[in-house]
Amino acid sequence: MSAEKRIPTGIAGLDRVIEGGVRDNTTFLVVGSSGTGKSTFAMQYLNYGLEHGENGLYISMEEPPEQIMREAKMLGFNLDKYYEKELFFFHSKGKDFVKLVDEQLPALVEANRNYSVKTRVIIDPLTPLIWAIQDKQEQREIITKLFYTLKQLGPVLITTEEHSSPGETVGEDVLIPIYMSDGAVHLTYRPIGGAFNRALEIIKMRATRHGEEVYPYIFVRGVGVVVRTTPLVSAEDMRKYDDVFDKAIRTAADLGAGERMLERLVYVKENWSYPFSPKETLQIFFESQGLNDAVTREDLARRKEKEASSPEVPLDIGDLSGGTLQIEDTKFMQDETLFSDSDDGGVIEIDSLSELEELIQ
């Protein structure tokens, strides 16, 4: 699990499924069609930062500042008291935005370089810039420069409107911003029924263990967006499969896995975040590493001979990070039924992780 400090988005419920918030100096994209609430997400994100001692920079390519603050007040966010003190606006349109990216924003970054207060940045929406630049290469270059520049101020939230064709999961016009962003969520209308007819999905969230479900959300005046989620995995649930992982690590060591693979298994154990058993995943991983396709009679004999000449040493998982690998002595079973006299060359076929465990006990 990532130990990097997280910055809460202030969007109720969302932080529960993205490890507590976004990483600093990253871009967070909110994608959705008209009416899904992208601007509400942006205002709520901005308001949270202002209420917790941050500055705010709101870049709008459609609405003037007065209209933005008026709409925010209708949702219960009073931005007036921060205006031109902690909250600043850039209002630019279409091609004029290129000048903003090339000249004004770099100058702002330079002016704030030694300023200790974090600035939370909003671009709402990015859509006019996408439409104004038809050439995909030019579009990608300016978006790359924009994201790079703004991330130096602090965490950035960008909204963009999609216009997807039938059968498209995500509209083609937003693919470049999604690719260039550090994190992205997709807002959609869904026939869930009742009040929950809008839903959020996390498309990507770099270096973050995030939820993978579809999360309904509603709008509550005075609060804003409320995303209906449950904690991804509780602290207790994260540890309930430790025994499974420990057995897998011992099995891998006994089958001759290298130190690097054992380190990877320990890392998977520490970061397993699903509510179901990892047995199937571990079995597939073992197969991909060639550890349970087949074990020959000669392999077992060589390992047994090597073990007989070595002192019994337990596997200490805690020592893996220090670069010292200690492998538990294993007495392989002598049952003749394990070996085949057929034409397969004395190969023992292993179909599951449990069979591996039984084999080496």
UniProtKB/TrEMBL annotation:
The keyword Nucleotide-binding applies. PROSITE patterns: KAIC. Pfam families: ATPase (PF06745). SUPFAM superfamilies: P-loop containing nucleoside triphosphate hydrolases (SSF52540). Keywords: ATP-binding, Nucleotide-binding. It comes from Methanolobus mangrovi. InterPro entries: KaiC-like_dom, KaiC_dom, P-loop_NTPase. Residues 5-243 form the KaiC domain. One of its GO terms (molecular function) is ATP binding. This is ATPase domain-containing protein.
